[in-house]
């Protein structure tokens, strides 16, 4: 038995990924972990234009984990294309890279993909559908089945690579929304993104932006429920479980619920070698 698995037609050496936004574009982690040991890495968001991000402080810890409002800060697709993805492809050629894409209009996601798709070195896209649709009063794309269909089908036309949709745990009927994405041509779903939250310190919001997204231990149960519900509705649809993973048992719970791959975010920020230790401890791992 080995840990290798094939998901949406891509072969991974093991099921453990680094979650989007917590590993940058890989370069930031140089030396802190052996990236080629991972099943894969999901990049930080890539948008059409560069984004400076939200006002500091952007992260705060609390008992349940972490709250962040990074604001999808990123250098924009042209610089990611020029500087970031080529570095990963050159330095860590074996690493499976999934590019996380954000957009604020119905066409922006596909435009980002169109500007990256001729590059070698990444194996799939993950669409962060928890972005506000500015032409629809700021309702997030993932909350609206019509917007999901429009975004996914335009992305489908822009690439042959597999497309994963990433959904918020706060949506009322996640299986129906994932089904809309699947019917429009998505190849899998990543469940879940952060959960909206706010905390005070000394009478003032802890984050510069006021509110943010909860990640870490508090999210584990939400993520497992989302994976379990979606896999019941869409059996065999490839799922990436994400949210609150800290142990081998957490990974196995996501797998039990129906995830084929499992991504680690917050726990790896605090302890960059944790993903490697989890891989080493998974049943089926061969020490070599
Ligand atoms: C600092 C930070 C930045 C994040 N940035 C992104 C992002 O750019 N795109 C995205 O889809 N998810 C982003 N996420 C969400 C994570 O990928 C993941 O879904 C979430 O943190 C839950 O996993 P965890 O509990 O293991 O951290 C971010 C999370 C954190 C903590």
Layout: helices, strands, pairs:
Layout: E1 5-7, E2 10-12, E3 16-18, E4 40-42, E5 59-62, E6 65-68, H1 77-91, E7 97-101, H2 108-116, E8 124-128, H3 145-158, E9 163-167, H4 174-183, E10 188-191, E11 195-197, E12 200-201, E13 204-205, E14 212-215, H5 220-233, E15 239-242, H6 248-257, E16 261-264, H7 266-270, H8 274-281
Parallel strand pairs: 3-4, 3-16, 4-7, 7-8, 8-9, 9-10, 10-15, 15-16
Antiparallel strand pairs: 1-2, 5-6, 6-14, 11-14, 12-13
Helix pairs in contact: 2-3, 3-4, 4-5, 5-6
The structure holds flavin mononucleotide (FMN).
3D architecture notes:
- The protein has 288 residues and is an alpha/beta fold.
- It has one domain: TIM Barrel (Alpha-Beta Barrel).
- Helices cover 30% and strands 20% of the residues.
- It contains eight helices and 16 strands.
- Strands 3-4-7-8-9-10-15-16 form an eight-stranded parallel beta barrel, surrounded by six helices. A four-stranded antiparallel β-sheet has the order 5-6-14-11, with no helix packed on it. Strands 1-2 form a two-stranded antiparallel ribbon.
- α2 (108-116) runs parallel beside α3 (145-158), α3 packs parallel to α4 (174-183) and α4 packs across α5.
- The longest helix has 15 residues, at 77-91.
- The protein is globular, with a radius of gyration of 18 Å.
């Amino acid at each position: 038995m080995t840990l290798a698995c094939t998901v949406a037609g891509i072969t991974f050496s093991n099921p453990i990924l680094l979650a989007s936004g917590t590993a940058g574009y890989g370069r930031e982690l140089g030396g802190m972990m052996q990236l080629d040991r991972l099943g894969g890495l999901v990049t930080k968001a890539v948008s059409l234009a560069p984004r400076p991000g939200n006002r500091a402080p952007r992260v705060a810890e609390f008992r349940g984990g972490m709250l962040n409002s990074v604001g999808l800060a990123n250098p924009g697709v042209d610089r990611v294309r020029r500087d970031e993805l080529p570095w990963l492809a050159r330095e860590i050629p074996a690493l499976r890279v999934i590019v996380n894409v954000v957009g604020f209009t119905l066409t922006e996601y596909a435009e980002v993909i169109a500007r990256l798709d001729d590059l070698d070195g990444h194996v799939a896209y993950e669409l962060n559908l928890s972005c506000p649709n500015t032409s629809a009063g700021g309702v997030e794309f993932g909350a609206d089945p019509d917007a999901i269909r429009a975004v996914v089908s335009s992305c489908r036309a822009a690439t042959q690579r597999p497309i994963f949709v990433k959904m918020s745990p706060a949506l009322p009927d996640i299986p129906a929304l994932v089904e809309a994405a699947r019917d429009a041509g998505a190849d899998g779903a990543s469940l879940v993104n952060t959960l909206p939250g706010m905390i005070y310190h000394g009478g003032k919001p802890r984050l510069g932006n006021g509110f943010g997204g909860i990640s870490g231990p508090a999210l584990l149960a939400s993520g497992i429920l989302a994976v379990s519900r979606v896999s019941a509705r869409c059996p065999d649809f490839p799922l990436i479980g994400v949210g609150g993973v800290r142990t081998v048992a957490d990974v196995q719970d996501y797998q039990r619920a129906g995830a084929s791959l499992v991504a680690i975010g917050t726990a790896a920020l605090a302890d960059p070698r944790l993903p490697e230790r989890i891989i080493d401890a998974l049943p089926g791992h061969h020490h070599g």
